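hey can u check if this looks right to u? its 470 residues, i copy pasted from the old doc so theres a chance i mangled smth
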Amino acid sequence: MGKINLNDDRFFEPDLDTRSVARELYNEVKSLPIISPHGHVDPEILSKNKNFSNPAELLIIPDHYIFRMFYSQGISLESLGILSIDGTYIEKDPRDIWKIFCKNYFLFSGTPTKMWLSYVFKEVFGIDEHPNENNAMVIYDHIQKLLLEERFRPRSIFDKFNIETLCTTESADDQLVHHRAIKESSWQGNVITAFRPDSVMNIESKDWLNEIGKLSKASKITIDSYKSFISAIEDRRQFFKEMGATSTDQGVETPFTQRISDQQADEIFQRALQGESNKNDQRIFIGHMLMEMARMSTDDGLIMQIHAGSLRNHNDVIFRKFGPDKGADIPLTTEYTKNLRPLLNEFGNNCDFSLIIFTLDESVYSRELAPLAGHYPSMKLGPPWWFHDSIEGMKRFRKRATETAGIYNTVGFNDDTRAFLSIPARHDLCRRVDSNFLAEQVVRHVLDMDEAVKINHDLAYNLVKKSYKL
């Protein structure tokens, strides 16, 4: 693939008028600090601040965008160093993993992953050529040498990236030891957490009883009823808030919400404790718990996020062998108007409640989500997520949502990434795409230039600070 060319006008429309305005708008925001309000970077790397061990463990093994593409081409996860859950991991030389990566790097052509990686190779590591079978070891040795330097330790990289705030995501029982260590250190980086209770809400999971045990231990509350379960959740939310959290997150298959009585909830909870619950129980329980999480958010002020529309772990073979988060989560058709109505009728008119909705179903942008966000004062639209965190995905979102919801019922950008080094690449791509969208509006005389400049600054920085109370 030759040289890496990060053209100054990349991702802008080819017509010269739009491109010229987009360039001007982008230059106004390109150097703004990065706020990453939702993501999955491991806080341990910033807590311990150790040098990254090698390029494969840094760039390949944590990134399901990379290994799901390779798996789709028949490359085994074992060969990429992915650990199986039964402990039958065969030690892989990181150089061999890197050779596979470079040999098959061409598979990412035209994808967001290629755009992010090109940025990382060029801007972070000073590499001029795209990886391939011939230069694999030269690039590996170059990166390996850099990783030994002080300036490539996690905290130094964080500061170099101009990250103002980085939010990670932890489960309800997490003791947040790494966040505490960061706060107690002399380093000034702002790393906060978000409360993610999925594991204790999914009563049909085979690990649910174990998760309840961990929640009970963390909260010091014996959980033997729905009432004690709610007390434990409230206790943990308060702890997360004291540790700096401003948001919660719920990953659900559907955004179904429904209020049931405490008695009904306890009956379901007791069946789950006995291992006798069913899928309908889970649907009803999660729907009720979303109502409860909204109630708690009105009380404690934590922003509520709902990520809906993913059938998790679609590939049973991979799930059984390697566990979750291995690139096999697939989007679903998702309905919001009816499913969210109970929650929005109970809480959506309360300006003290903040709800951010994400979807993997693009067909609902203009039909359901934009009209809902354009009416209820508590609801905002999260940015294009996961498979749609791309040039065309961002463009589709803006074009389908803006006319009904407006710009200011959206929340700016979040990268939602595990890949630490890709953070500035993802934010840069979004700032370019938003600049391009606004430039089209200026050229078509929908917006004046001064309006576009202000909106672009808000999209890149102000909206996310306001929406996530940062």
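The chain has two domains: 16-50+153-467, 51-152.
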